[in-house]
Write a structure and sequence with these properties.
By secondary structure, the chain is mainly alpha-helical. The protein has one domain. A hairpin with a 2-residue loop joins strand 1 and strand 2. The radius of gyration is 18 Å and the shape is extended. The termini are far apart. 10% of the residues are buried.
Length: 110
């Protein structure tokens, strides 16, 4: 049986575990659009993800850990994108900011 695996924090994780992690992260992000972070309970996250608390705690120690994992993933994606361009970090971010900003309605009169 060929099961895709990924390494997270030095641990190999199978496809089913990755799916659970993604569901938990997605649930937290959705809940953060509806409520302040401090008001979100683990039970709300697991209910939204349709997973049991045991699964949650098998992957994360807290809701802060979930958020940290999401942010770490964004950092990794950004590092990968920047390394592919060969540009210095500040130059890349500045160029992206001004390119995106030029298309924002708030800057249309500038």
């Amino acid at each position: 049986m060929n099961i895709a695996k990924k390494v997270i924090k030095g641990k190999r994780i199978n496809r089913a575990s990755l799916k659970s992690r993604r569901l938990i992260i997605k649930a937290l992000l959705e809940l953060m659009e509806e409520h302040p972070f401090v008001e979100i309970a683990i039970k709300e996250i697991t209910d939204r993800a349709e997973l049991v608390r045991r699964t949650f705690y098998g992957h994360f120690s807290s809701k802060e850990d979930v958020l940290r994992s999401y942010i770490d993933g964004l950092d990794s994606q950004l590092e990968e994108i920047i390394s592919d361009t060969g540009e210095p970090f500040l130059h890349y971010v500045s160029r992206q900011f001004f390119t995106s900003g030029a298309n924002m309605p708030v800057f249309s009169g500038c």
